[in-house]
Design a protein that fits this description.
41% of the residues lie in helices and 21% in strands. By secondary structure, the protein is an alpha/beta fold. It has a three-stranded mixed beta sheet with strand order 3-4-5. Strands 1-2 form a two-stranded parallel ribbon.
């Protein structure tokens, strides 16, 4: 989970609620506890995040023709310039995607939450 919360209590409540959903195997709670940004700062931050996500996705698609990477299986979410990568991919794809994200403009940090399936083959 990513996003922002004004309190640890709310962050914990969200995690608890998600944990009670049938079929949930694991929870990665990356919700940031912080004071809310002023509207102008929030818009600026979200605009940067959208730009980073777009850049990473575009670079993943560009790399698709050169490798076994299948970007449609990778979810990219950016919060405060931290890129979160998720999906079911092979170990090689995970490594390639992480490298692409880490070398993308504006990225402060990359966190990966891949489920590795080395039996997977790109179509």
């Amino acid at each position: 989970m990513t996003g922002e919360s004004e309190s640890q209590e709310l962050k914990d409540k969200v995690e608890s609620t998600v944990a009670n959903i049938e079929g949930v195997k694991a929870i990665y709670n990356e919700i940031l506890v912080s004071k809310p940004l002023a509207l102008k700062e929030k818009i600026k931050s979200k605009t940067k995040d959208y730009g980073i996500t777009t850049n990473v996705k575009a670079r993943l698609f560009k790399e698709e023709t050169k490798s076994n990477l299948s970007p449609v299986h990778i979810k990219v979410v950016t919060e405060r310039q931290i890129v979160h990568l998720m999906g079911i991919v092979s170990a090689k794809e995970a490594e390639e995607a992480e490298k692409i994200a880490k070398t993308s403009k504006g990225v402060v940090k990359v966190k990966t939450y891949f489920e590795i399936d080395n039996q997977y083959k790109k179509n």
